[in-house]
Amino acid sequence: MPNQSHIPHQANVSGVNSSVQEDKQSHIKTTPIVLTIAGSDSGGGAGIQADIKAISATGSYACSVITAITAQNTQGVSAIFPIPLEHVEHQLDAVFTDLNIVAVKVGMLADSSIIRVVANKIRQYQPAFLVVDPVMVATSGDLLLEHSAISTLKDELIPLADLITPNLPEAAALTGYPVPQSQEQMEDMIDDLRDLGARAVLLKGGHLEQDENSNDLFISDQGFSLISAKRYPTKNTHGTGCTLSSAIASYLAQGNTLLNAAKLGKHYISQAIAHADELDIGHGHGPVHHFFSGHSNVR
Q1: Which end of the chain is more exposed for a tag (fewer CB within 10 A), N or C?
Q2: Residues spanned by the domain of 164
Q3: What does the alpha-carbon distance between residue 272 and residue 276 come to, in Å, rounded to a whole number?
Q4: What GO MF terms are annotated (predicted)?
């Protein structure tokens, strides 16, 4: 009899341990992993560094493929070293063949060749979500991409995207419109932005500094929605575009819809801007505060 009572007890413990192990394995398999493909910012405010901070702060695991190394701080960029194409390919193969990457965020790509490399690898590995931040216009208004590279971006990469996140100068470069000076002029671009071929577009209105709120348009085949947040007066906005697109990719990897991920990302970047002046970084345009909250997942 003692043996009979003992055996079921052992079986029960074994079952519990098995269940715990299965739960652990399930958790491991569903860890939201986000890949950022972008350049390095040695000042830490934008690029790969901002992406990793935003992905981590919003509750996902970040991995990276570096396309260029910049000598950069809060006052500007003094040098850029492009990573050889072959090594960019090696990085992409390394992460895709080992990690369960759910979402990919693409930032600045320097020329047509690297755009094609990235587009080909996206087609090869087919991650569930692709967010493209079409970085092509400097704050000064200067084009960062040659026109041929913009064409390659439109032909090769944007049609693969679930979401693109252009600011107003970038949207103008993509569509041929003048840079919008009002929300009405933003709305004039909707059809042309849809025609680029991405599943959805988040047209960012942050450049309309005369507006009380920062208003973005979320554009899809179903129509468009206004996503609005309070505008905070600060010069410390370096890396806002990188941060927003990375946060959206993070929320997509966690199972949110495109629209909800955009809303969550907008809330996150707004709070990161609101708390930016709590940091004292550099002598120019400082970064936003990626870790304004002690919580790992900002909802």
Answers
A1: N
A2: 30-278
A3: 6
A4: ATP binding; hydroxymethylpyrimidine kinase activity; phosphomethylpyrimidine kinase activity
Q: What pLDDT, on the 0 to 100 scale, is given for residue 76?
A: 87
**243: in domain:** yes
In which element (H, E) is residue 265 found? helix 258-274
Work out how many domains the chain is built from and give that number: 1
Predicted confidence at residue 21, as pLDDT, reads 42
**Catalytic residue of the set 53, 154, 204, 266:** 204
Q: What is the CATH number of the domain that holds 51?
A: 3.40.1190.20
- Residue type at 160 in one-letter notation: L
Query: Is 96 part of a structural domain of the chain?
Result: yes
Residue 187: inside a domain: yes
Q: Which residues contact 74 (CB under 8 A, 6 or more apart)?
A: 43, 45, 238, 281, 282, 283, 284, 285, 286, 287
In our burial notation (b when 16+ CB lie closer than 10 A, e otherwise), range 239-265 reads bbbbbbbbbbbbbbbbebebbebbbbb
Amino acid letter, residue 29: K
pTM of the model: 0.88
109 close to 121: Cβ distance less than 8 angstroms: no
Instruction: In whole angstroms, give the CA distance from residue 274 to residue 35.
Output: 26
Assigned domain for 283 exists: no
What pLDDT sits at residue 8? 35
3-state secondary structure of 202: strand
Q: Identify whether 58 is a catalytic site residue.
A: no
Of the candidates 36, 74, 237, 243, the residue annotated as catalytic is: 237
